[in-house]
Amino acid sequence: MDRREFLRLCGLGVLAALGLAGCRLPRPSGEKAAPQTPAPYTPPPMQAAPARGPDLAVVEGDNYEELLEKGLEAMGGIARFVQKGNLVVLKPNFSVPRAPEEACTTSPRLVAALVKKCLEAGAREVRVIDHPFFNGETCLEKTGMRRAVREAGGKVYVLDALNDRYYTRVEIGGQALREVHFSRDVLEADVFINMPILKHHVATKLTMGLKNMMGLVWDRGVFHARGLHRPIAELAAFKKPHLIVMDAVRGITSNGPTGPGPIREFRRLILGTDPVAVDAYGARLFGLDPAEIEHLRLAAGMGLGQMDLSKLHTVNVFL
């Protein structure tokens, strides 16, 4: 048994212990015939950081298109982030086969609206990706993500095979996370936008932006085997989005991440450039002290962002 297979089996065992036995990590037919493990990869230099603007924009309402329009305006406009000719990669959460009204996945309406905005700003291509832990094709159909993204002019697919097209091995160099197979799309993007949903998670209390990054990694079993929280924080140190757009309009408040569960109407869209701050706002909106979320506290302690919302420039918009 090789190391990858051992870690995959460990991950499955931990997920089962957490009550997620119903989740099936993908085992695509191409996995067994995957090419030689990709060599360590050095990503190209990131484009210049966006011009200065608010740290956070919080928009209250329930119309996804209007929320995004006003949120981007408050953040300085889409041109602050996307330039003509950019390759843009969006990472929503469509990891479970639930319909949008079940509030377990990022709204496809929101994702489609952002795809359109990026293309209007001159992006040459917009890709929408995730690594679901149920069958990826089923998730694309059930969530409505495939149809919404394609109709908006973007490309959408699942990272369901360990190959040179989807993943490359990168050195993380953390205490818990030393190396992972990470999304090549994100590494090669000019602009990377994280699009989590705010919802309950049985193992980490909440899943938001920092945890949503796990959907860019192939071998997630190592996260569970090493306590989840520190690996999540260390992955955040490796890669920071240019922008986070958190769907906090509706979300399940228990039985996450898979659902179904009771749904709460938060009626917020949270946009920001600080991944710790966005999650801290989400935690407070949910009713938790951000310090109760261990990976969030660790990320703040590593200097990855600001957990004290009073120290941030926040713009609030009410529709």
Characterise this structure.
It is a single chain. This protein is of the alpha/beta class. It has one domain: 3-Layer(aba) Sandwich (Rossmann fold). The protein has eleven helices and twelve strands. The chain has an eight-stranded mixed beta sheet with strand order 4-3-2-7-10-11-1-12, with helices on both faces. Strands 5-6 form a two-stranded antiparallel ribbon. A hairpin with a 7-residue loop joins strand 5 and strand 6. Helix 3 packs parallel to helix 5 and helix 9 crosses helix 11. The longest helix has 15 residues. It is globular, with a radius of gyration of 18 Å.
Layout of SSEs?
Blueprint: H1 3-17, E1 56-60, H2 64-74, E2 87-92, H3 108-120, E3 125-130, H4 136-142, H5 145-152, E4 155-158, E5 167-171, E6 179-183, H6 184-188, E7 191-195, E8 199-201, E9 205-207, H7 209-212, H8 221-225, H9 229-238, E10 243-252, E11 263-272, H10 275-286, H11 294-301, E12 314-318
Parallel strand pairs: 1-12, 2-3, 2-7, 3-4, 7-10
Antiparallel strand pairs: 1-11, 5-6, 8-9, 10-11
Helix pairs in contact: 3-5, 9-11
